[in-house]
Amino acid sequence: MERLNTKLYLQNCYIMKENERLRKAALLLNQENQALLSELKHRLAKSAAAGNNNNNAAAAAAAANRASPKPSMDAAPPAQAGGKGKPAPKPK
Questions:
Q1: Cα angle, residue 20 at apex, residues 25 and 17 outer, rounded to 5°
Q2: What is d(CA 57, CA 65) in angstroms, rounded to the nearest whole number?
Q3: Sorting pLDDT into bands at 50, 70 and 90, what band is 17?
Q4: DSSP 23-90
Q5: I want to staple 71 with a disulfide (CB 3.0 to 4.6 A). Which of 17, 34, 75, 88 is the partner?
Q6: Which residues have a Cβ under 8 Å from the Cβ of 82 and sit 6 or more positions away?
Q7: What is the pLDDT of residue 21?
Q8: Annotated region Disordered: where (predicted)?
Q9: What is the largest CA-CA distance in the chain?
Q10: Distance (Å, whole) CA 48 – CA 30
């Protein structure tokens, strides 16, 4: 009976030691996962901000084009070299 108790005690010690080793490994993996998740969130936020800046610039340009006033009848006609529909004369 004494021998059986000793054997079970040694097995229990081995299991506790292995459990502690696995707990430490799990802790390290969790820390690594948290660091990677943080980096991923940072990169996603950065790319989303860059995408929003591009979208905002395009939207602002489109809004400016829509909001720009059309020339009125009082406005001066655009300058055309050489007359209406004719190409500009070539300098000599």
A1: 130
A2: 12
A3: very high
A4: HHHHHHHHHHHHHHHHHHHHHHHHHHHHHHHHHHHHHHHHHHHHHSPPP-TTSPPPP-TTSTTPPPPP
A5: 75
A6: 88, 89
A7: 98
A8: 56-92
A9: 119
A10: 26
- CA–CA gap between residue 35 and residue 48 (Å, rounded): 20
Structural tokens at position 80: 């055309």
Q: For residue 33, which amino acid is it?
A: N
By the 10 Å C-beta count (0-12 exposed, 13-18 middle, 19+ buried), 31 is classed as exposed
Distances, alpha carbon 29 to alpha carbons 24, 32, 35, 36, 83, in Å: 9, 5, 10, 10, 77
Q: Output the six-digit token pair for 72.
A: 């009125």
